[in-house]
Predict the 3D structure of the following.
Amino acid sequence: MIDQLNAILKDAEGTIAQASDLKILEELRVKYLGKSGAVTEMMKGLGQVPADQKPQIGKVSNEVKNKITALLDQKVQEMEAKAEQVAPAGWDPTLPGRRLTAGGIHPLTAVQKDIADIFRGLGFDIAEGPDLETDYYNFLALNFPPDHPARDAQDTFYVKDRVLRTHTSPIQVRQMENKKPPFKFIAPGRVYRNESIDATHHHIFHQVEGFLVDEGVQFSHLKGILNVFFQKFFGNEIKTRFRPSFFPFTEPSAEVDISCIFCAGKGCRICKQSGWVEMMGCGMIDPAVLKNCKIDDERYTGFAFGMGVERIALFKYGIDDIRLFYQNDIRFLEQFQ
Ligand code: DAH
């Protein structure tokens, strides 16, 4: 009987060691220690054992039972510990983790900030004005005669007796009227024009206005400031060129071109082979505008300029369609992070 018990133990050691899951271990527990398990059956037979052998056989059967119990318990523990480490099916730990996407600054906001930073470095303050303007600030105070074509309903959105500002120039008037010079401001803002949308036009876009009024301000100061601005923004190699133009609120007026940043002025598709691209309007503030702001136009002179943020952003990033700025397509915006 002792041999039989030892054989059961040996068998159990082998099968338990090889058991590959908890279900098999449970089956083994039944096989050896269950109601009709091998060890249990042996212990039931103890009754027929001669009395002198009983204590020894009883002792060995208890030992075998305890050993098998311990082996089973230990194996269960091992398996449970391992299960915690083992990944769920289908999970591949060698794959890279999922990338967390963070929001970025919109390219138009970034460009507007770059512009503002440069002018702030040159001592300009920042001013703002309302999007919904009166005819007076948007046009009349800026020396637009009542029959000027820019007032045409084709260009201007009217809202009852107001207009959605068509440019940021009215901020000049709001800043200067009834206040004493000197003035040195830039004024960023959204502007509105009744235009159909295409690759280069949108009915809502952004401008940055700039103006400086003091004693002795000359056109050369304007040129100097704008040269510095474009070189800081696009690079030191950038050249500027001022072409005579017309705006009701400046006299003389000019349009500013910069040497084409794509071909360094050699001539390409973007600059239509001219080597120059138009960047903004500017001029010496018309004395009539200063008068409207109750500024002594004999004593003070000033310059002003206005640029389109979208246009500058198109050139900075080499983008050829203004609509991309407003579609909020993540694939486009992600490139500016
Ligand atoms: N307001 C003009 C526009 O929207 C831009 C402009 C031109 C602004 C000349 C100025 C300036 O201050 O001096 O087209």
Summary: The chain has two domains: 2-83, 107-336. The longest strand covers residues 204-215.
